[in-house]
Amino acid sequence: MKYMRYRLDGRVAYGVLDGEAVHPVEGSIFGPHEVSPQTIPLAGVELLAPVAPGKMIAIGLNYKQHAAEVGKPLPEEPLLFLVSPTAVIGPGETIELQTPAHRIEHEGELAVVIGKRAYRVDEAEALDYVCGYTCCNDVSDRVLQRRDGQFARAKSYPTYKPLGPVIATGLQPDRTRVRVRVGGELRQDGATSDMICGVAGLIAFVSRVMPLEPGDVLLTGTPSGVAPLVAGDTVEVEIDGIGVLANPVAAAAAGGVPGGAA
């Protein structure tokens, strides 16, 4: 099943995608709900990011090949950090480069959407707490990342976390592929089987640090091939079983961000 979040006549709702039609969902996808047999043409709704997360937890250096390309040793345990949910945008929305003179890179990632409260869960049961999976582009300012020595600012500016296009259920998260194309050119092509810590292990690990709530999003790391984005690009993140998340890229309006000068 592919859940989508949309706006119609000023109202935000969930639906189930069925080809070029949408079946409205009655109730919350994070609780009891029913899928209506009625349909709405997909072309008649505004597609939004598939979730408005309460918090976003990201994992760094979780692919062996990516760790190799940046010359870092494999972490002994998942490298955990938070990014702001205010950075989230949906399919088709514009990534606005806040500091266009900086090296700002794409990172295609499998994103896990939590379906029910998870706290101190066992790895064997961890996937039972998942609502589904979506695509993320973890846009990252490398200049600020190096300057700060940590990740929050470099990855949290508005528009730096595109999500979408849908939340797919029934996916085998450790047996899919993540691809990123920029202007049609393949940049990243990695198998989630290359993850150092798989999805179930990540959920168990994070849930021992903090409770995961319905609608929270866990970003699972990126494969090798990260590269810069520039104004005028169109970047696509494609994950088998989910679909394609596409976003144009532009320079942000004049003014920039505090502390952003090179």
From TrEMBL:
Residues 1-50 form the Rv2993c-like N-terminal domain. Keywords: Hydrolase, Metal-binding. Gene3D superfamilies: Fumarylacetoacetase-like, C-terminal domain (3.90.850.10). Residues 55-249 form the Fumarylacetoacetase-like C-terminal domain. GO terms for biological process: carboxylic acid metabolic process. GO terms for molecular function: acetylpyruvate hydrolase activity; isomerase activity; metal ion binding. Belongs to the FAH family. This is Fumarylacetoacetate hydrolase family protein. It comes from Paenibacillus sabuli.
